[in-house]
Protein 1
Amino acid sequence: MHAILILNPVSGVSMLASNEEEKEQYEERIVTALRREGIEAVVRYTTPEDAGRGLAQEAAEEGADIIIAAGGDGTIHAVATGLIGTKGTLGIIPVGTMNNIARSLTIPEDIDEACKIIAGGKTQRIDIGKINGQVFLEVAGVGLEAALFPAAEEIKSKGWISTLRGIFEGLSKLFAFQPTHFRIAFDERRSRTYSAIQVSVCNTPYYGAHFQFAPDAVMDDGLLDVLIYKNFSKMEYLRHAFSISQGRRAFVPKITRRKAKSLRIYTETPVEIHADGVPQEVKPASITVVPGALNVFVPEEIAAGRNVSSKGRKRTRRYTRSQSGDLFRDGELTKQEEHIEEKGPLYVK
């Protein structure tokens, strides 16, 4: 069995090591855990120039059976992107700061347990999303969410000065941001217009700081979960974020939830766009799902088709289909959100 381990030497866990000796012990622990499960892996390290995509492509071209990403969401995203369109199977050892992708697939953060899942050989093909051609595994966003991501990265940085700077920047952007009109065409059907502050298009239930924004999102259903944040005041947005961080769901009536295979988003004024936290060019957003684009080692219950949440509960489906064929959540469409025809895009940059 030909296995390549792509290791991020500066991931969240390894950065906790106080010296080079401890970092080597951290790396050895991963290699030993794999060896214990019968997997001999060649280790390759990510660099600032190659976060893992190029290494993954090389591993697939060499015919590696297993390509393992050990790091956080950024490393897993990079390696996964390199494996799209190849025969390589992705193994995940989540040793980063957030590990939302692993959490969404119910892969534990314990190194030994994650290695057991890879050795178990159970796989599942999962979806990816694309926004204007850019791959995302977790979420693509248009509007306030995209504007706030740089501040969130500052808060995650080491040091209280960076944290304070990130909080100040985030609050400044929040209170300066104004709602705009989003015209959205779902699955190439007629468009619908919303007054909103952001649109989040989710492939995973978790993103950000372990926040479960899209609890109904499933990574293998061939659909993206679309969250449209309507008519939020600034304080309501802050309270909503806090509630989500505490595992509660607030202001649900103000969030329209849709499921779609593709959508195009036009805005009345130019607004920021991101894909998994990476800023994108400001222009009309064309978003689509690519079903089953990636083969991943997963726990047995996921491979068996029992779609469960990270807490082991079966997922519920509270979506129905309208006469136009759109999937929407019961009770969350208002009279103001009727279908309208548009002859051209709203104002875009």
Note: The two ends are 51 Å apart (CA to CA).
Protein 2
Amino acid sequence: MQASRTPPARRRQHSHDVLRRSPVACERCRRRKQKCLGSPPYPCAACNDAGHACVYSESEKRISVPESYLLRLQSQARSAGTRVHDGMPSPAETAATEVEWAFPGTDNWVLCQPGQYHYMGNSSSTYIANRLNPTTETLAWHNYPHYEDTSWLRRPPLMPEMPQLPPFDFAKRLYQAQHAYIGTIFSFLDEHSFHQRLKHVYASPPDPANRDDCLVYCQILLVFAFGQMYSVNQWTGNEGPPGFHYFKYALQFLPDAREDGSILFTEVLSYVAYYMQTINRRDSAYLYIGLALRMAISLGLHQEVLDQDMDVHERERRRRLWWSTYSLERLLCVTSGHPISISDDDVDVLLPSAVDGEDPRRAAVLRNYTLLSRILGRIGQDIYRKRRQSGTSLSASILNIMKSLSEWFAQLPAEVRLDPVADPEKPISREIVSTYLHYYHCINMTARPLLLYAVQRQMAANAANNAGNGQTARWEDGLSPDVVSIIDNAIAAARSSTSILNAAAKYNQVATYGFIDGEQAFSAALLLVMVNIAFPYREMNASAMDTALQVLQSMAEKGNKYIRACHALLNKISASKKPVVVPKRDESVQAPGGSTSQEQQQDEQQQQQQQMPFNLDAGDDVSGWADVIDSIGIDMDRQWIGMALMREEGLGEGTESGTM
């Protein structure tokens, strides 16, 4: 075996090593930020030439530790004196050593048929529900399409077919039906344009060679599809959800993405994205809303038009279409856990405003719904985005977002507010329902990481209590006042969402296939289930959870397969945990002033729907926020709740026997 030899090139390189940087720079070179060519303890060439003393100082070895670890040490040092007197560890500390929170799994990835992985981001309610799941089943929207025949997804024929159109007057009613749910919070089609295009569709057959003609027919058929979906609002046969046949025909008229962009094209793509989401094809919806948003950007809708000759109505149409596409994109991305496509720093266009001859309420709803969508985008970026977080940055993000939500509510105009003295027997206007549900959902999404952390701590304390280590601890113990305030507001927001949904359901105003209603109902129910399985029992929260599950059950019974799976999972989770014993502090005692607990609950619910005060102090100790990151992580790659549930007494037996 021949001995290895150094290649000639390597030997030649050694002759230049005398100029390499010194492993330890002298103090003068370090101050001057220049390369040090010395070799300790001999002086470097720079100091020698300048006649300066060359001093090498041996620097202390540095190590990197997470900020949360440093903050925890500081917090422990401050509280060491108080804990010495106790002599006993807290129940949460004891249980934390006994409960294994780590749970092996695929985390964000869901395996669907046939062997295809799908990604669910951390802000997705489905992602959180899978962590609560006490069984091995996976809740994935891809497994529950509302129509399983995929032949309509294939390339359409060269000559598009026209379905049997409804009577002209009935077509107008279909427009009004979809407008009540979509047109009040998005502006993809105004009434004047609809009537013009409707007359064109009924007057002459489509010209397949004319792109704009195809777009008009496509848009009108999409309006019919939405109108029938919302007016019938339940499954009626084997041909898909109501109005689905109109949607299939509409796709035949949809031009390819390689066609030139236009405002009409952007409107149609946004409609298609929305419908794809309603039939639970979220990946397709994500792709289409991406096309719509990029087409809007290419048309410059995200910037104010410099042309002073442009008509006021046309200028406002551009603004409303931009913010509608923007708002829908934010909703689709954050609820599915995907990154948003454009930063607010790149947008420079005015918010929707009223034009002459228009009801100002219309623009007010659009503007305030859009402002909430902007906050929702910040929630996805600042809280759930996959990046290195610290306790300081997380606390600042959450506190700033909660402050923005409070400011949003404070400036909400009277025409968009819930009327506190309105007749409870009369239905709430649908645009008010949509706006308030959006608001409460933003609170839910902001507080969710803190709630998960509090649930983890409380379940650990409950496990310690079951082991005989003492009385059940209050979940607020050990949490800073701002964290407690945020969690309390999130729980109250979930109760208010449930109350509004329940009131709307009495008048058939909850969209069975409307993805926004379904997502917000599921999110509120999920939060209330988490609270009821971990926190001490409160009648107010338990009643709200039951109502939330009833709303989901109603949507499931009307044909929404995905909500049916969500409802079944939440029932399993809520049944897997017995209510914690009511502590002394509860609403069971008579409230000050002699009011009963039921009256107090009604007053609190009414106050919650009128105002959401956030009394937060940004100067609180951030060590608890660092614990949030350490315990659950914003990427939540540990199924700690699932493991805790599996360890509960009797749950494992039920799961193994298949009784769950």
Note: Residues 173 and 227 are 8 Å apart (CA to CA).
Protein 3
Amino acid sequence: MMFARGSKRLAPQCSLALSKGSRYSTPRLHNYSTSQPPKPPKETRVPQLIRPYIAVAGLTAIISLGYYYTRNRPESLGDASQYLRPELIVQEAKTSKDLSKEENRESLSSQHVQVKRSWERPGLYAWGSNTGLVANPDSNEYVVKTPRRIPYFDGMVLRDVKLDQNFGAAITERGDLIQWGKGYSKTDYKPTKTLKGKDLVSLCITADRIIALSSSGNVYSLPASKFEQENGRKPFESSWIPFWRTRAELSYRPLQPQLGLGEKVTAISSGLEHVLLLTNSGRVFSAAVGSEHFPSRGQLGIPGLTWSNRPKGPFDSCHEVIALRGVPITNIATGDCHSLALDKAGRIFVFGDNTCGQLGLDINVGSPFVDSPQILPLDTLYPADVYDVQASGIAAGGTNSFFTVNAKRILSSMEIPTTVRDLGRVTSDVWSCGKGLFGALGTGKWTHVQSKPTKVKALSGLFEYSDTAQKVVPIGISRISVGATHAAAVLANFTNVSASKDGSQTDTNWGADVFWWGGNEFYQLGTGKRNNVASPMHIHPPADVVTREGQREESRFQVTPRRTVTLDGRKVSLEQRVECGRNVTAVYSGV
């Protein structure tokens, strides 16, 4: 609590207030102390003629209050807690006898409608900048202000989606690559299948290339441009005829790290000019993939590596990050020019550009680039010897980094177990660093440069009661997606997708909560407004999932967790995912 400067020995007056409309409201402490003592009130004289009447009225009030307390007082001090509970206000149910059970459910809950529509009509919503015809290939409008479906993807479930302001890329359920936008072709900019037959499972994009990973661990690097795909050098591919090879239909380059027996690439992540490859053995490789510039800000994790002294061979040769050899890495993330790696023990390694503090390390003005992985000291974020701190997730994009951390309360050498009430309690927190000029830090502040990780309070220290565990449990983060200047976080809150026909009309489904924040110049937050947002917030659901007037305005966008449903007569396991790109955002049905 902060006191006003120069305040004297005055007892601070405090009040508790809950944030209106917030599910996870927290008490706010207000301090009304001043630097000057209060002035005595002016004396008010009461005429003598009305003094008797005032006395009688006061006596009557005292007797009435005494009678009320006698009739309504609690029997014991233990029962007094009942009178301290906040009043529960129940909204009148919007049900009707003229509607069916399912229709009443839809009228009651837009969350139920969102879950139901995601099963019945899978597809892709997009919004934000449309200068490259990515958010809406069928319209020439400059921006798409709120979530809107791209008709081409109606009824489709996708393996992965990545968006740039100029081009979009997606992987179909069968593993084929789809591209669209002016960055693909200024004339044929509508969604088109390009790289086919590779059984792709995930992808990432650079400034002008697409990096795709197949189920067998092969990595393909191909230009985003249709012209370059058709006119560039095309590699030989094996054929179904023994000892016969043919030219590929498109130009692409295979990225081939030196792997051990049984080792294969399982994850990829890219910045503007580089890509990281993670193998099933926990090894990390990096490669240059920019068509115009060689990565020179340390993001490859190879000390001293430049264009002039690079090893002989292709410019996009894969290099093992030697500093991480022997460290079992489980996750990787990249921003425009920096890289993150998370190991099995919950440690975070950072390297690359740190000009905006995106590595979470102190900025060295004379040498702002870190070309060898360094451990991010997470223990300095919590009181010493009181918490066991382990990172559980990493995310990056643009000039920002995010870390999810599980902090377990432990006993310090100076404490007695019986005096520590929260011993063993685990709190899930989110920390951010980097550039906050557009609000991308999510801290409520517009900090230009933030080198020391700062807590995103709106996403930290959240709890809910678990019926399964019969106790209060922390609400973690399922996933954070980071674009160039904005971000979104999906909570790992309790969801319900088991409402059945046999249940009551109030038995509804609901999904996972999503928060959005950051730059909004191109309406990429989906609020319908253009102002940047420095604190995580909800947005309204798409207009096509509401069933009654006013339902959209009173509801929030949620995403559906994984569930096996029947789609076109076949069983499909799908979920909704959020993807933040460069000034564009998407929510799609993923397999």
Note: The two ends are 47 Å apart (CA to CA).
Protein 4
Amino acid sequence: MADILPTATPPSTRYSRFVVKSNDVLQGESRINVMKENSEEVIWFKERYLGEKEIVEHIVHNATRTICWTVHRPLRGWYIRLRAPTFPPGVFITFNPVPSRSSHYTEAALSFHSRTSLPCAPDESPVTTYFASPSPRPPPNRSSSSIHSYPPTPPAAPDLVLQPPSPTSASEDLPNTLPSSGPKKKLKTNPSNPSVSEFVLAPYADPVPSNSLFARVLNSFRDYDKMNYYSFTLSRIAIQAPPPYSSAPGSAGLGLGLGLASASQVPLTMTTSTEASISASSASPSNSSKTSSGDTAPASLPSAATPTSGLTSIKCLPLLTYHDHTSSLTFRSMTGLLEIDQAEEQLLGIDTSFWIAAALAYLDFLSDRGVSEVLLLLV
């Protein structure tokens, strides 16, 4: 069953909004345009090309005509691979179905892994997966402070020079344990390791407004042709440590409640099993990367906190939400509103074009899936 958002997204400057709209069917080439809300200026567009073995879609920055990302799907079989033109050959970001045993499983949900700017634990195991570092050109009219790249590269840590204080500058009330003279000690710190985050794309249903019966009937007649078949969300999966063990009666349940309340503020501590992201696989479907997303996610929260409880994975608030406004009376066309949480985007440190490409790839997946279901009903 599709996820149901608790409330509608309130209008706020925190969210950047884009209109996703296909061009006229009568035009020569099929394109999906992404425009700023209340503007006719196209920022990105998607074009489809048919190859010998794959269907390749280009996500192009309209102002510079630069290919930011490409989406690869086979003519036969199934896989979805996202890559940048600067990736080495055979390196992809792979979309995988969410396992049914995962607590984040919903029908038609897909997951992928990506390197982000989130802090990781210092004792985290080293990532053995290969990473590329392309820097797609950002959209124009954006300040340098808001420019991101994929994957985000943490800034190099400055060298720390420790120099003992001189006798004249040392305070009299400090203990005389520090040496008054000696050579400078230069300690070079290692830059922080990049973390790998899991993301889940899943359909959702628009919440039903709590209006009167007459208002709901009137809205159903007014919007009867808007079916919202392809609305979905993209959310980050945060890994949270269990609450501390307590033997007091009823304290375990309280700890779980507090843990859920602060889930969005807990630093991401990924384990080795969840760090499979971009695989250095070949372009053949048989060599597609395998992730272990959901293998460590429990089916439900433990009833009590124990010292042996594992990590808990929690779905954060949506980073990206797509509201489908496509009319059921149209043929081979789509329109919708795409919202991106700017605060979460800044936290992850990835360029907006990456989220646009991931959303358009999943939108195609839902569209093809809907066509297949209709064909099965007609047979």
Note: The chain has one domain: 26-136+192-244+268-298+308-378.
